[in-house]
From TrEMBL:
Species of origin: Haloarcula argentinensis
Leader peptide range in chain numbering: none
GO molecular function, one term: lyase activity
SUPFAM superfamilies: ARM repeat (SSF48371)
SMART domains named among the record's database cross-references: EZ_HEAT (SM00567)
Protein name (record): HEAT repeat domain-containing protein
InterPro entries named in the record: ARM-like (IPR011989), ARM-type_fold (IPR016024), PBS_lyase_HEAT (IPR004155)
Top-level taxon in the UniProt lineage: Archaea
KW Lyase (keyword) present: yes
Keywords assigned by UniProt, alphabetized: Lyase
Length: 410
């Protein structure tokens, strides 16, 4: 029976036997690889014990395969390996600082896979005291170790990692730069974010996307110009991320700055590909759960929408009129007015809301307000009739105000 068939049929004990007793290094290596697929097996404990022993063999190939499989089996499996190597009994209820101490010892192991496993484990333990030791691995000869160490430092999020991570941003390996950029974004202090700014033009698309994604965490307008530049990136993913970051930035900056930044953004967006901006904006309005993001998006859509995306934008803004968030409704209404209505599409959609007695009066009132901006003779006649028939004061009041802008009652 082949090794693949043993794995397929769940013959864990037979694979364990081959891992321990075979004289063929390739067979033992393959057995170690396949045992990583037995996470839910009844013999999982025996699988982990066998892999822990194999991970400390003299063969780099077998060691690497065993460590990768332990990693597949979960944190507890890696913890057992680290404890075995450090000579510490790491029970499930062992204190995190005890586990971290053992992991830090293994960070100096000769085998790179072991250093990778130790770096991974430290990221999951969230022990700030491990950051200086992880930073030492930023100069590891193996790029995989450098990448894992940077990722774990970002998970921990201690500011002491900021300066060491900055040096990793110039690493020759794009994968390492990506992890360093992501880590700095997670740390998110002023120094970390400042270090990311030049990366909007990194050679690697994923590095650019990670950096641009972090720009939304700024609490000031420092990254606006960089985000505008990113809207012209060759990568659609980077352009989309830049739109999301612009909206996030507007949500994070102080209110007295957000108005000025919005105006700056709109002015600069006039020179970009409208579609690359509008589609992600619509997605934010439709899918985001953050009130501030949706409000800023609704406002923006009225100022940057292209003719190509106009119908979709109108539908999204009209739907937003029915939301519970009053400020979102107001921004959606002003954006609909800003779009204008040469084809009467906005008027038709709003009249459906206004004439539906089942719609909340506040929502109908918001639609009426917008009709006062974009409506025509049809709207004037509808509102004239509505004033006499409605039972809702808010609807009547809004209708009086709107009809006065449309030429008055007939």
């Amino acid at each position: 029976m082949s090794l693949y068939e043993l794995e397929r049929d769940g013959k864990a004990q037979e694979l364990i036997r081959l891992l321990r007793e075979s004289d063929n290094e390739r067979v033992k290596t393959r057995a170690a690889e396949l045992l990583g697929n037995f996470e839910d097996h009844d013999d999982r404990r025996d699988v982990v014990n066998a892999l822990v022993d194999a991970a400390q063999s003299d063969s780099d190939a077998i060691t690497g395969a065993a460590i990768d499989s332990l990693d597949e089996l979960g944190d507890d499996a890696i913890t057992q390996l680290i404890g075995s190597m450090a000579g510490v009994d790491l029970e499930d209820d062992a204190a995190d600082w005890v586990k971290a101490k053992a992991y830090m010892q293994v960070l100096d192991a000769d085998v790179p896979e072991l250093r990778m496993a130790a770096a991974n484990g430290l990221g999951n333990l969230d022990q700030a005291d491990a950051v200086p030791k992880l930073a030492e691995r930023f100069e590891d000869p193996d790029p995989r170790v450098r990448a894992r160490a940077a990722r774990s430092a970002g998970k921990i999020g201690d500011s002491r990692a900021t300066t060491p991570l900055e040096s990793v941003l110039s690493d020759p390996k794009a994968g390492v730069r990506r992890e360093a950029a992501d880590a700095l974004g997670n740390i998110g202090n002023r120094q970390a974010l400042q270090a990311l700014l030049p990366l909007y033009e990194d050679d690697d698309e994923r590095v650019r996307r990670i950096a641009v994604g972090a720009f939304g965490n700024f609490g000031n307008d420092r990254p606006v110009d960089y985000l505008i530049e990113a809207l012209s990136d060759d990568s659609a993913a980077v352009r989309r991320t830049a739109v999301y970051s612009l909206i996030e930035l507007l949500s994070n900056v102080p209110t007295d700055q957000s108005h000025e930044i919005r105006d700056t953004v709109v002015e600069k967006l006039s020179n970009t590909d409208d579609r690359s901006v509008v589609v992600p904006l619509v997605e934010i309005l439709e899918e985001s759960t953050q009130a501030a993001q949706r409000r800023n998006t609704a406002w923006m859509l009225g100022r940057v929408t292209s003719q190509e995306e106009r119908d979709r934008v109108i539908e999204s803004l009209v739907d937003a009129l029915g939301e519970d968030d009053q400020m979102l409704r107001q921004f959606a209404a002003t954006s609909l007015a800003e779009l204008g209505d040469d084809d009467n599409m906005v008027e038709r959609r709003l009249l459906k809301i206004v004439q539906d007695d089942g719609v909340d009066p506040e929502v109908r009132g918001q639609a009426i307000f917008t009709l006062g901006k974009v409506g025509g003779e049809r709207s004037r006649k509808t509102l004239d009739k509505l004033i006499d028939e409605t039972e809702h004061d808010v609807v009547r009041k809004k209708a009086f105000s709107a009809i006065s802008k449309l030429g008055g009652r007939g």
